[in-house]
Amino acid sequence: MGFKKQRSLRLKYFMILNPKLFLSDIELKSTRDGFGEGLLTAGDENKNVVALCADLTESVKMDSFAKKYPERFIEMGIAEQSMASVASGMAAEGKVPFIGSYAIFSPGRNWEQIRTTICYNNANVKIIGSHSGVTAGEDGGSHQCLEDIALARVLPNMTVLIPCDAIEAKKATIAAAKTNTPVYIRLSRPKTAVITTEETPFEIGKSQVFFTPKERAQAGIVACGHMVYHSIKVAKELEDEGIFVSVLNLATIKHLDEEGLLHFTENAGGRIVTVEEHQIAGGMGSAVAEFFAKKNPIPMEFVGVKDLFGQSGTPDELIQKYGMGEYSIKEAIKRVLQR
Amino acid sequence: MTLILNDEKIKILEEKAKEIRVSVVEMLASAGSGHLAGSLGMADVFSLLYFHVLLHDSKNPAWEERDRLVLSNGHICPVLYTAMAHSGYFPTEELGSLRKFGSRLQGHPHREFLPMLETSSGPLGEGLSQAVGMALAFRMDKKENQLYCLMGDGELDEGQIWEAAMLAGKEKLGKIIGIVDRNNIQIDGTTDQVMPLNPLKEKFESFGWHGIEVNGHDFHALNNSIIEAQAITDKPSVIIAHTISGKGVPEIEGNYRWHGKAPSMEESQKFIWVLKNSGASV
What we know:
The structure holds two protein chains of two kinds. By secondary structure, chain A is α/β, with parallel strands linked by helices. Chain A has helices spanning 3-16, 31-45, 63-68, 80-92, 104-109, 111-119, 148-153, 166-177, 227-240, 258-266, 284-295, 315-321, 326-338; strands spanning 28-29, 49-53, 73-75, 96-102, 126-130, 159-161, 183-186, 192-193, 208-211, 219-223, 245-249, 252-254, 272-279, 300-305. Chain A has a seven-stranded mixed β-sheet with strand order 3-2-4-5-7-6-12, with helices on both faces. A five-stranded mixed β-sheet of chain A has the order 9-11-10-13-14, with helices on both faces. A two-stranded antiparallel sheet of chain A has the order 1-8. The two termini of chain A are 23 Å apart. Chain B contains ten helices and seven strands. In chain B, helix 1 (7-31) crosses helix 3, helix 1 (7-31) packs antiparallel against helix 10 and helix 3 crosses helix 9. Chain B has a single domain, classed as Rossmann fold. By secondary structure, chain B is an alpha/beta fold. The A-B interface holds A 50, 71-72, 74, 76-77, 79, 81-95, 97, 112-113, 116-117, 120-122 and B 70, 110-112, 118-123, 126, 129-138, 140-141, 159-160, 163-164, 166-167, 170-171.
């Protein structure tokens, strides 16, 4: 793709992203809130959509659905393992169950039930893991799931989605309800920047270039979840330092948009940094690296958690502490440019 | 009641149970591995279910009105496959393919290979939750299908069973009938040695279930327990079927070492001779 075309893409995506993208008063909303709205819409559209929750109904934002459709909501109690299998049984009889908990419990606690009763059966169950990553915050390391992308993407038949903001979370939820196979959707607790708009296209399995620099890109950032926002901010700031970086929103970790990744990288200097709020081992960056190692080995750097557990703190403090802050992203870009 | 049994029908069921046992021994010997003891111990229960109790149509396995049978302790699938084959779901010749490469009869049941199964199973403790999920879906859709969930007694060590039992009790799922194969053995020894379960009926009752204990080799008593359980509509029921593992082959009966073992070809010929020359299922 020529530079001119990149410029036109830059305009195209600026137009479909939130015009306040680089303003300090950009709207904040959590992806779990976006999920809650999406579940309600999915429930309105399809009477077979049902929801199950393990004593975290309000926290996982299933409360609106439970209120509107009490006969289609099952309160499981604190029983994530049974919840996964009950959902499998409901799916066997034509329901489209969404199961909700914190990521550490689902797919953490109940991983084998998800493997055997959902994925092995290819059952139409949607797994909602909220409070993922260190941004779960003050609850501490026991509750900060940094392993769920790895747990979910290793399972055959599973699709893995990580929406970048509340609006995309809503779209991902509605789209997931229309598939007939297992889907994992990873959500976050805190309010994060709303970077897309209702008009921003979303399709499972398609990545999107969310930032194209004003000059030819020297490197690319592949990001997921709320780290997309931080990556875009970094890319914008780097322009002032004369470093030109594009940003790809990789909302579908599985199955990877291979064509999109190749295309993106070709136009980003053939070198990339992956950015995620997850252990580096087994996460989104690993998935991308597996693809490029096979298809077209390129220099890569990984921003994520380096084989550590989290601790109590505010989301911002923890993102800095565990090497996922904007400074860390910039450093990773500089490293990849040296290679 | 259509479920009433007469002596003539019992003779037929005994004969079916004997055929099932012979097939189980043959297929395990041919496979060279598998779980013999529990499969033989549950042959009478499967004979009663497949040839008397279940509403099902082997020529139309996807028939929506069918009863659902969830085998939670998937390792006794030889008896499930055999009962299905003898009911006409697939040719009995296919039983010889058990555990072999490319077979629909996987070592533990896999619905992706054999779609006429209600679910895949093997890892223990997961079937009751799935039966509960099916029952919840039926209730939402105002359907009346009966559900049977077969469990092993060793399997009840799994915490997930009790999560599901709590939910079934809370939701008063009267269409669920659990059947526990109470043979008192598991891999490491007797259930009393490994993890005592008693008082078992009272455990279920305390979770809001109706409990029944029965001799799992007495067709009359077993049938009556099903009739009793079906009549309970405001709570789930559990039938604790006291069985003898390896039933029909006296030299292995009650011996936990046969839980996960297949007979050699030589042993299988001896076992089959014993089965064919005794009133095994009485």
